Amino acid sequence: EIVLTQSPATLSLSPGDRATLSCRTSQSGGSYLAWYQHKPGQAPRLLIYDASNRATGIPARFSGSGSGTDFTLTISSLEPEDFAVYYCLQRTIWPPLFTFGPGSKVHIK
Amino acid sequence: QVQLVESGGGVVQPGRSLRLSCEASGFTFRSYAMHWVRQAPGKGLEWVALISYDGSNQYYADSVKGRFTISRDNSKSTLHLQMNSLRDEDTAVYHCAKDLSGSGTYGMDVWGQGTTATVSS
Predict the structure, then answer these.
(1) Cα–Cα distance measured from residue A12 to residue A6, given in angstroms and rounded to the nearest whole number
(2) pLDDT one digit per residue (tens) for chain A, 109 residues
(3) DSSP class of B89
(4) Mind telling me how many Å the CA of A44 is from chain B's nearest CA?
(5) Measured between CB atoms, which of B44, B50, B59 is closest to A100?
């Protein structure tokens, strides 16, 4: 069973700040890692897939990096609409089983 | 536009069954793998199940294996989740979601708003 750890659990920042979110996995899943943004009452939104590929329509301020067991989501300059919970998602290579991290909440300072 | 609409949620007693459905539109449903993902009250996201584009392969989280069955009807662009032997801890909002690929390689890129299943005596 894969266990994902996200840090920090909460992040207090101001608009314009840089946010760096970490996701560490207990097993290497190669680059099969995605990042999601989730706001209350809304469906989650895919930001990054395959560790570093931005999904369609996602602004360039969102970037993903990493491989193996350590991954990072960076928001270069926070916009007011970016305050939300961010989840990482990893897939085992085979069989394709998915695990979400516990989430990191980015809220306004 | 691409849309996923879930239905079938409700209140059910422990040990009983519930069948969720998800109607897809705006994309070629038969070409993509599909997932169910849930969120219990006050908790994070939990992946539940995956089905390949043609329905030939299904995969489940350990927490639901043997109790839940994912299926699809490509002729009707519809995804289902049959939930049997329900437990209190299955109470959640259930989202269906489209994968980026046909085999379930990359994860979910489009999500429905969800339907709520409440297990309570």
Answers:
(1) 15
(2) 789 999 999 999 999 999 999 999 998 766 689 999 999 989 999 999 999 999 999 999 999 999 889 999 999 999 999 999 999 999 988 888 999 999 999 998 8
(3) G
(4) 7
(5) B44
